[in-house]
Amino acid sequence: MAPEEITELLKKEFGEFIVGSKFDTAHPRVGVRADAWPEVARFLRDDSRTGFNMLRCVTALDLLEDDTLCAEYDLHAIRAPKSGAAPYELIHGICIEVSVPRNNPRIPSVADVWRAADWHEREAYDLMGIIFENHPDSMIGPNGKHPRRILCPDDWVGHPLRKDYLFPMEYHGIPAVTEMGQTRPVH
Amino acid sequence: MSWIENRFEEGLIITSLDWAINWGRRYSIWPMTFGLACCAIEMMAIGASRFDVDRFGAGAFRASPRQADLMIVAGTVTYKMASRVKRLYNQMPEPKYVMAMGACTIGGGPYFKNGYHVVKGVDLVVPVDIYVPGCPPRPETLIEGILRLQDMIKNQSLARDRWQGAKEKVLASTPTYA
Amino acid sequence: MADVVLEALPDINADLSAEMLADPQQDFPTEEMLVNMGPQHPATHGVLRVVLRTDGEMVLEAVPHLGYLHRCAEKIGETLAPYQYIPYTDRMDYLAGMNNNLAFAEACEKLSGLEAEISQRAKLIRIIFAELNRIASHLVAFGTYGLDLGAFTPFLYAFREREYILDLFESTCGARLTYSYITIGGVTDDLPDKFVDVTREFLDYFEPKVIEYNNLLTHNHIFVKRTANVGVITKKDAIDYALTGPVLRGSGIQWDLRKLPGSGYEDFDFEIPFGRGEKGAVGDCWDRYYVRICEMQESVKIIRQALDRLAGTEGQEVTHKKGKTLKLPADEIYHEIENPRGQLGFMIRGNGSVIPDRVKARGPSFCNLSVTERVCSGVLLGDMAAIIGSIDVVMGEVDR
Q: CB-CB: which of C254, C332, C367 is closest to A25?
């Protein structure tokens, strides 16, 4: 199915939870409201018309001008060939966009729908600070429950890929320099 | 050889012994298998068929720091890794040497700017003896580094502390937080 | 037969008391232990750290910890022009720099519409180098896998052949490991003199070597015992965890992005090797390993065809002059290619200026590694090295 048809199908099934879609781009995508996302995800995976069984990538974006954070889920549906010898076929692909406000970025986790989402969501939390609720690998932080960090150390401050991220000038006693204008620390 | 260090003037008695011990040391440098990033592939290449670092007596890569003389820091050191580098260094027995291989370990390299998670030079963490530049250094460059290290070992003396009495100072200047 | 043997054995529970037998937890009163593996460990291929909960020799749970090589490549991507970012893609998957260059360059070209203006010769050169690098990368995987399992000789064999490929790269772009040769708008320079002949010579030399590898390691009895039926990944798991590359194909799923339309490989004749369970179950370590060996042979086929086609394209411009000053439109793209380790994807969001808003890399090793948590429960401690080695991770790409 083309992205347009998938969007029509989703609109028929979920109505007002489907918000906005972009097709005149190199990356056709459908917007889904955060609160309905696990339901939509389960539909996308299980329905025979969609059958998206492979979550390729989760990209977190910081849209500073819109004051939103956004997670994009790239999906593929592949299936075994009818005859035995041929390679697997690509049925179709789509991208789902889930936008959340920047001051309270919470998206329900879909790690139980696609296991691949587990680490991608941890990375998105670590680098962009989107909190994925009910993530299987969560921990309690000072601001409530959130997925465990994956790349940065657990005591890292801030979320580096946010546009307003302030670079650390020191970590556990090791000095850091981040701008060319600054000279190396004397040691 | 700490019992002998700084006890004698540099004299005739020690000279021949020095020569013999340094000869043994410099042709049996055992590096640690300590690959961090891209440079580790070139470090593997010097151990393999074409470059064969065994010719220089430095081919016995040890997996444990407790058996190693030389730590080749091959690749970018990050803040998360820094405490491990420090700990591995502390686990190595004296005499121990550190080689900073590649631009990242010398000063952050291509990740100097905007590399929020990259240590800007491994010498902020452990004292470094030899710097081998390149991104990554060619195997020939790394072998040259090992030859320079051998020269350094050649000039050591039992009667003289390698750190010239400043070991505590050198180690203190590198942050201890591991 | 098995029953007879079991009856002949003494009852292992004979000297256990009745209450110990009643509680199955006390059957084998061994102690659970947490074992830390890495980040400095010869079998973890870099700085992977795995925390193992063991009971005797069994691994009950394995939790990978990443980030020891997190080099902020995505943040740096937001501060540089795409042409300047090419060297950073080299350093992500440092065993396959050419393929990474290709993925990023293709993504930028598709986004800005430069794709149609790339000459045929540049496309063929790209394919030749991507496939040569695939061979070089799989050679390292083959060599170090032997090393993980205690066989040192395959490593020396693999690096002997790899040096020939690196010589070809060096004669073309001057670098051994981080090439930045494939750039936006084609490749940086045309091929050197006699490149075609030397490459053909290499291919003729290399093809019989694969048979040597098979005799040395693939069908080696000890090697098969260590890898067959170990670390089995089922088809369902493989798709659910979004595994790609030889790890996916080892599970019996014949899926390769190079066979899809638009990949540039449409009119090349090659097979997709996949795991058939020759030595054990489908999707075990041996299958994953053997897929790589077969892929090297397929790459040789592709390179031969590309070299033949190169003859008709003499004199075509291989570097597009717009590449260096490319402005990305206010749009985004997610583009994947088949890297030696799987599908390497780049998500680029432009904003109309030279510098993109967001660059995201989907490292194939990152996704492939996430399956360890599932595969490594209930295996023997000694099999950990076999499983991690068969997934063939490059930490530079996992952590980026």
A: C332
